[in-house]
Amino acid sequence: MNIAFVFPGQGSQSIGMMNGYADFPIIQQTFQEAADILEQDFWSLINSGAAEDINSTVNTQPLMLIAGIAVYRAWISSGGRQPSLVAGHSLGEYSALVVSEALSFADALKLVRFRAQSMQQAVPEGMGGMAAVLGLEDGIVELICHEVTSSGNGETLEAANFNSPGQIVIAGHKNAILRGIELAKAKGAKRALMLPMSIPSHCSLMKPAADHMRQQLESVTLHSPRIPILHNVDAKSHADTATLKQILVQQLVSPVRWVATIQALPAFGITHVIECGPGKVLMGLNKRIDSNLQHISLANSEAIKQTISNLNAQ
Questions:
Q1: pTM for the model
Q2: Is 238 among the catalytic positions?
Q3: Which of 89, 173, 202, 272 is catalytic?
Q4: Among residues 12, 90, 95, 301, which one is catalytic?
Q5: What's the pLDDT tens digit per position in 40-51?
Q6: In this predicted structure, what is the pLDDT of residue 49?
Q7: 90 in active site
Q8: pLDDT of 118 above 90
Q9: DSSP string, 242-270
Q10: In what order do the strands lie in the sheet with 157-164?
């Protein structure tokens, strides 16, 4: 039996999202550590803040990193075994880097805050966005994006997240997205709808952010991962630190290949996929990608304790 840990990104945040872990002191300790590093009280933010503040990219990105690491620390402190492999969905890849010891928690927090600010500044408010398309094959969605982008008005539409079979997120200029939604519905999509995100992540509009990230990473120390990481960009594992930095830059302008990532797990001998963080977003996607794997979510304290007990019994 080999386990892989996967870490969620933006979209899993919510008010009170850590309430289910109240009996793990290390959870709040991790939030305090992050507060000391970034000089911001994220614990108060998730417990008494406004939803719009939690959903602001510059808060959401460090918040989800803190949450993922806090839950992982709770797992380890309870006697949970170390994973054989790690991965993270978009922003979640930074949690995977920390767990693999390729990146320190402090450096990851600072990088993620910088990443969020760079992404927010890359495209003016209201100009870009993202939409989910459900029920169409990948190739059809990619053709829609190509058709919209090639229409000659200078606007871009690209496939940004391959989340599960029949669930793709598109990103680009807002008007291009609205046109893409129309075409998707015309071609038989079950649903096509705008997402509550003003930043067109994982597409070429993020090139300014990628350029800034490249410069920022020059002063950051990375190490060869102690646990293999499967990356969003290519669903492959890399040990070279120069390559890791390039992947973190490329990730901003490339689609999240989550389907390919989960499909790659059996080749590494993985039998159990554990979502590490609040919510069950990834577990739902993962089940649709490969139902032969065992899928688990550490969505609260009881889930952590029960999963450790079940794995130890096998």
A1: 0.96
A2: no
A3: 202
A4: 90
A5: 999 999 999 888
A6: 87
A7: yes
A8: yes
A9: HHHHHHHHHTTTS-EEHHHHHHHGGGGT-
A10: 191-194, 128-134, 167-173, 157-164, 256-257
